[in-house]
Amino acid sequence: MKQSFFFLAFLFTLSTQAQESLNFKLFELPDVIFSEIETPKGYNAAYELRIKQPIDHTNPSKGYFYQRAFLSHKGFDRPMVMATEGYNRGKNRLYELTNYVDGNQIDIEHRFFGESIPENPDYQYLNLEQATADLHHINQIFKKIYQGKWLSTGISKGGQTTIFYRYLYPDDVDVSVPYVAPLNLALEDTRIYDWLNKAGNKECREAIERVQTTLLKDSAKALPLLKWYAKGANLDFNYLNLAQAFEYAVLEYSFSFYQWGSDCATIPPANADFETVLEHFMDVSGIAFFSDRDVAYFGSHYYQAGTQMGYYSYEITPFKDYLKALPVDKNPSAIFMPNKENPGFNGELPAKTAKWLKTNGNNFIYIYGKNDTWSATGVPPSKKTNSLWVIMEDKHHGNARIKNMTKKNKEAVEEKLEKWLETEVEIE
């Protein structure tokens, strides 16, 4: 018993010394404010960070803001994982990749999201060049104390950020692991339509279209019910009125159905009553995503999609006769710009990135779910690089993760990581 006590005391002393050493090093870093937070199990320290960033990295006289991030410290001799969030990040979380490489982690909130936003933000400075310059600044600061191998990783829009960061700053990290990350090449990337027209089997596609048609044809039945639902859920509809939001949500239904792994067996049969169909639709798509609350929450995301990153629209050919609230002269866009402004789209950077990845994008591990709608615009495999693509059967946007891979794919990922990081990697 006495030996166990002294051993625990010894470990506590080592942990305390490590934290004091890290505190000292953090004090010496420029542009970093830090405060201690709860330390994850297996780590020696954790901090919430505020990192000073220029609003415009090409002209610092435009002012500054503080970008939120979270540091989880395991050891100065361990790899560092940069988690490149695509949205806000309100609290610390460890990515599975960080655990597999037994590494440190900096989880970085995206500029113009959450608390990482200037006063009176000017959206012209929300672009990929500025966002990746934020990441580069953080990378260069923390490489002063973490001098081993570096990885970047992100999920969905965070994965897109990982891809663009590597293109614009190819020497910052040794390995990049984007999960379920699209690389859209147009404001309306029609590869989405091609994918949806072939997804699943014919019976399932017909059932999906049947649900959409039923709802649109009987919108007069749906809208009064949805009005009461909106009232109970405290949802407002001013950016889009309720009828517009409903039609958008019905058009979104097929995209969401596959993105989040819905089961074709759950689609109500052709003879189901209308309320059953409506309830199913609300489970899969629903109208909340098109409410003022959600449109505002994703405003910065929509700005990036509408100006530079590209996105998708809704193919309305089968539904033109049933749409009443939306115009039918063109496919309605899924982008809802802040203040309904239209600064214009420039897809030059995604196009350059796609071209570079094909021949120069080495040391990437791309992870996609084969059943995920967003795989339609994923980075296509190339034999001209040493990178690894894992297209996971029967997986979607929410569960295409290393932990859910087959043993063979886990071994392939482990082999690549060990080779590129020159350290042992353990994937259970």
Q: How much strand?
A: 5-15%
- Can you identify the CATH superfamily of the largest domain? Alpha/Beta hydrolase fold, catalytic domain
Query: Helical percent range?
Result: 25-40%
CATH topology of the largest domain: Rossmann fold
- Separation, N- and C-terminal Cα atoms: 33 Å
Choose one word for the global shape.
globular
Order of the strands making up the biggest sheet = 1-2-3-5-4-6-7
CATH class of the largest domain: Alpha Beta
Uncertain residue ranges? none
Concise account of the structure shown:
This protein has helices at residues 2-28, 96-100, 128-142, 157-168, 191-196, 202-217, 219-232, 242-259, 274-284, 292-297, 299-309, 348-360, 407-421; strands spanning 32-36, 45-54, 64-73, 80-84, 104-108, 150-155, 175-179, 365-369, 388-392. With 428 residues, the protein is of the alpha/beta class. It folds into 2 domains: 2-185 and 348-421, Rossmann fold, CATH 3.40.50; 191-340, no CATH class.
Describe this protein's structure:
This protein is of the alpha/beta class and 428 residues long. Helices cover 39% and strands 13% of the residues. The protein contains 13 helices and 9 strands. The chain has helices spanning 2-28, 96-100, 128-142, 157-168, 191-196, 202-217, 219-232, 242-259, 274-284, 292-297, 299-309, 348-360, 407-421; strands at residues 32-36, 45-54, 64-73, 80-84, 104-108, 150-155, 175-179, 365-369, 388-392. The protein has a 7-stranded mixed sheet, sandwiched between helices. A two-stranded parallel ribbon has the order 8-9.
